[in-house]
Design goal:
globular, Jelly Rolls, 5-stranded antiparallel sheet, mainly beta, 3% helix, 1 helix
């Protein structure tokens, strides 16, 4: 099997055996609160990323906060008004947006229907500091 030689050369060889037992984490096991938000902490499952899946009513969303790592959002359904520092952007279904490490940010559901958004944290744990 050929080895990839992309600009960031990959030197490891693939294996047929996983270093952790593969598992499926049921959505219900990740629920936090009563509105359908789910939190996945990668470190607990041998993953290098963490995420929130947010299912928000119109006008809802997390207030301003920041992380010591980047965050990437993928809008599954609806419209998000995202604040990144002093800028405000609008992301619609199937759009992706990011925020650099250390920048205040937050989002709200700017549409008339549900906002379903995946918030991917470039960390195996979630570290966030809230403005309020």
């Amino acid at each position: 099997m050929p080895v990839s030689t992309s600009p960031a050369e990959i030197t490891m060889q693939p294996s047929e055996a996983a270093s952790v037992t593969p598992e499926v984490i049921p959505a219900a096991a990740l629920l936090i609160g009563s509105k359908g938000t789910r939190r996945f902490i990668g470190r607990e499952h041998g993953a290098g990323i963490s995420y929130f899946f947010v299912d928000a009513d119109p006008g809802d969303g997390p207030g301003l906060h920041w992380h010591p790592y980047t965050e990437t959002w993928f809008v599954i359904e609806g419209t998000a008004r995202i604040t990144v520092g002093t800028a405000t952007i609008i992301a619609n279904a199937e759009d992706t947006a990011t925020v650099p490490a250390g920048v205040w940010h937050g989002f709200t559901n700017a549409g008339p229907g549900r906002l379903r958004i995946l918030c991917i944290h470039a960390s195996d744990t979630i570290i966030q500091t809230w403005a309020d």
